[in-house]
Amino acid sequence: MRDLFDRIIENKGPLGKWASQAEGYFVFPKLEGHISNRMKLNGKDVITWSINDYLGLANHPEVLKVDAQAAAEHGAAYPMGARMMSGHTDLHDKLQEELAEFVDKQAAYLLNFGYQGMVSAIDALVTKDDIIVYDVDSHACIIDGVRLHMGKRFTYQHNDMESLEKNLERATKMAEQTGGGILVISEGVFGMRGEQGRLKEIVALKGKYNFRLLVDDAHGFGTLGKTGAGTGEEQGVQDQIDVYFATFAKSMASIGAFLAGDKEVIDYLKYNLRSQMFAKSLPMIFVKGALKRLDMLKTMPELKEKLWENVNALQNGLKERGFNIGTTQSCVTPVYLNGSIPEAMALVKDLRENYGIFCSIVVYPVIPKGLILLRMIPTATHDLEDIQLTLEAFSAIRNRLENGTYKRLSAAVEAAMGDK
Ligand SMILES: Cc1ncc(COP(=O)(O)O)c(C=O)c1O
What we know:
The protein is α/β, with parallel strands linked by helices. It has helices spanning 4-10, 13-16, 19-22, 61-74, 90-102, 114-125, 140-147, 161-178, 199-204, 231-235, 263-272, 274-277, 284-299, 301-320, 341-355, 384-402, 405-419; strands at 31-32, 38-41, 44-48, 107-111, 131-135, 153-156, 182-187, 212-216, 243-247, 257-261, 333-338, 357-358, 360-362, 371-376. A seven-stranded mixed sheet has the order 4-10-9-8-7-5-6, sandwiched between helices. It has a four-stranded mixed sheet with strand order 1-2-3-12. Strands 11-14-13 form a three-stranded antiparallel sheet, covered by helices on one side.
């Protein structure tokens, strides 16, 4: 018999296998300094384009003050225990009420983390008789939530309404046999490519099929819609989203998340959401911190305006220079280039070392072979100089990619990374 760890030691997994070449630089890089448009990587200044601090709240002096006061008053622990047992406070309730009001729902419930919360929400919303229909490009937290489901599930092609309808037909037939219902899941904004989920078209199908809609609006909350209430508000269908989810890890620049919906549904989740029933409550630092951040979302529209000024300047600048930024409809700004993984590594090293630009790089198997995706997240902390420098750098690296420089350099980069 094999020792359990033999496989683990031999095969580190699809990402882990790159560790020796990539760790500390391409993956697990250490960005230092205050969270902002300019930070340090290995002691060098870089313009940062991969931090989801959309509204620039992470390092806002008013936010830092509230976080510090909460820490001084409560420490990191209070309240102890799960909400249901001993970890509940008036301020948890207050935050839920304010979040619900902000996203125009009857009630909301706090989650400690978005990822766990979404897994648990899917688990709580369905039984084995119910059918889940979800977008094939969904975030890992949705995929893992669906994995817990004991009943049938169908994927539909990414944002493809014909495919959704076909799967709704299949799901309806199946649900008629099992006696269950149907849960459709989409993201508000798909975080890699920046497309909005086609929520308006999805909810239009409610006229023909009986289903409930769960939306993960991690990237839409705070960035889209007139008030910042997210993708549902942006598309005018917030009232048709049955369960709305957002994390505090992006626009709110913190930790935590929430679900919002009709009071009866939230009351049910409160008593059935295993990630909250069997885990310690969100500490007061994050509760008070979230109240402050939410207040700023509501009262400082200039933050979202500045964000979009930067998004438009960056996306228009890239398009003017002939870059392919796909079909983004959000702040998420992907730049697609053609090249191999070693070329992508050489290119990113050049961008970081010689141009001082830090952005995320996505390659196969997340996107098709031969494509390189440089993913940028503009924030309210960026300025026009950051954008100009970045556009110039991108033009330069595209030339070097096209004239074969990175093909030649990639062997050397790989060797150097291997030495680290
Ligand atoms: C679409 C989406 N859903 C959920 C999450 C998970 O949220 P959290 O970081 O709060 O666990 C993320 C990433 O943060 C995300 O991008």
